[in-house]
Amino acid sequence: MAAEQVRSYLKERGLEDKITVHSETIDTVEHAAQQIGCTEAEIAKTLSFMVDEKPIIVVMAGDARVNSSKFKAVFHTKPHMLPRDQVNDLIGHEPGGVCPFAVKEGVPIWLDVSMKRFEVVHPAGGNEFVSVALTICELEQAVDAAGWCDICKGWEE
Questions:
Q1: Residues 16, 22: Cα–Cα separation, whole Å
Q2: What's the pTM value of the predicted model, to 2 decimals?
Q3: Closest CA to 46 of 58, 35, 36
């Protein structure tokens, strides 16, 4: 169901042709990179956190890890990922297919600067078999991002 919602969402934005359906799972960064044929860093992983008792999404490069002090400097709280069993209810996608498209209304989507070093990134597309290939500009426009943030470590060149 979520993948169809994502397809409709991207079609409205003229980006439906950026979707790829894979025969094997892309539920992890490693699996996604293998199926897509890119580096793990080029996977745009989408993580969901609770901030001020509300869910938010941060999309970051596949090789990036959340830095607690950077996260706290931006969001004024320690990073608390949503419990796996609450992700679908609060975000609108099941774990393994969480993406920044067609999420529940009112969930802000932040883009981490770790992705800016790539021309194209590959977020999931609503389930564990669908990916989307977008330029950074296309991603920014497609998700109506709340903004860019710098909350990650481990990716710096």
A1: 15
A2: 0.95
A3: 58
Residue 121: closest CA among 12, 40, 28: 40
The CA distance from 135 to 64, in Å, is 18
User: What number of CA atoms fall less than 13 Å from residue 3's CA on the CB side?
Assistant: 14
What is the rounded CA–CA span in Å between residue 98 and residue 82?
12
Residues with Cβ < 8 Å from 3, sequence gap 6 or more? 97, 125, 126, 127, 129, 130
Q: Which residues contact 33 (CB under 8 A, 6 or more apart)?
A: 39, 40, 42, 43, 62
pLDDT in tens, 26-68: 989 999 999 999 999 999 999 999 999 999 999 999 999 999 9
* Burial of residue 141, with CB atoms counted within 10 A of its CB: 0-12 exposed, 13-18 middle, 19 or more buried: middle
Distance CA 24, CA 16 (A): 20
DSSP 106: T
Q: What is the dihedral of CA 103, 109, 114, 118, to 10 degrees?
A: 60
